[in-house]
């Protein structure tokens, strides 16, 4: 009798799994229907877009790319300037080296995070204060 009960428990477990699979399959079918509806809507919207609209959008994208490239050039120029400043002051000013390393650590954190937390804002203020102090010392 125990083996019959065990088999019955197994049957119940299999029935439960089968019901879960049917539920999952129904959910997936609903999702596929929604996807098909969205694809249909997208095709209809694409049909509404004229060739002139596409040209305007393409021109806008080109303009955005030009701006981005220009900004990249500016950033590269800024980085080169920062390197020169770093090389000039590294040997003569330990406070500058400390502030620079602090800035580098924050930049590294930013690369690994999508948003900067509040304590990083405090760190940035500390960097600004360090650079202001350095500027006073250098006489700028």
Your description of this structure?
- This protein folds into 3 domains: 1-48; 50-86; 93-140.
- The chain has 140 residues and is mainly alpha-helical.
- The chain is built from 4 helices and no strands.
- The termini are far apart.
- Keywords: Coiled coil.
- Residues 24-55 form a coiled coil.
Evaluate the radius of gyration. 31 Å
Alpha plus pi helix count: 4
Describe the main β-sheet briefly: none
Q: What is the structural class? A: mainly alpha
Helix content: over 70%
Instruction: Compute the average pLDDT.
Output: 73
Number of strands: 0
Q: How far is it from the N-terminal to the C-terminal residue, by CA?
A: 94 Å
| Overall geometry | flat
Provide the low-confidence segments as ranges.
Answer: none
What share of the residues does DSSP label as strand, in percent?
under 5%
- Tell me the domain tally: 3
User: What is the ordering of alpha helices and beta strands?
Assistant: HHHH
Keywords: Coiled coil
What's the short version?
The chain has helices at 2-48, 51-90, 94-112, 118-138. It is an all-alpha fold and 140 residues long.
Produce the secondary structure layout.
Elements: H1 2-48, H2 51-90, H3 94-112, H4 118-138
Keywords: Coiled coil
Coiled coil: 24-55
């Amino acid at each position: 009798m125990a083996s019959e009960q065990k088999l019955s428990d197994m049957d119940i477990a299999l029935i439960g799994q089968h019901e879960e699979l049917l539920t999952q399959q129904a959910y997936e079918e609903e999702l596929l229907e929604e996807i098909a509806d969205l694809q249909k809507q997208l095709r209809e919207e694409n049909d509404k877009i004229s060739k002139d609209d596409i040209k305007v959008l393409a021109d806008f994208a080109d303009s955005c790319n030009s701006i981005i490239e220009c900004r990249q050039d500016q950033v590269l120029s800024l980085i080169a300037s920062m390197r020169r400043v770093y090389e000039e002051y590294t040997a003569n000013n330990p406070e500058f080296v400390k502030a620079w390393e602090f800035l580098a650590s924050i930049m590294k954190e930013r690369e690994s995070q999508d948003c900067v937390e509040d304590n990083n804002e405090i760190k940035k203020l500390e960097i600004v204060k360090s650079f202001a102090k350095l500027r006073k010392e250098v006489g700028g």
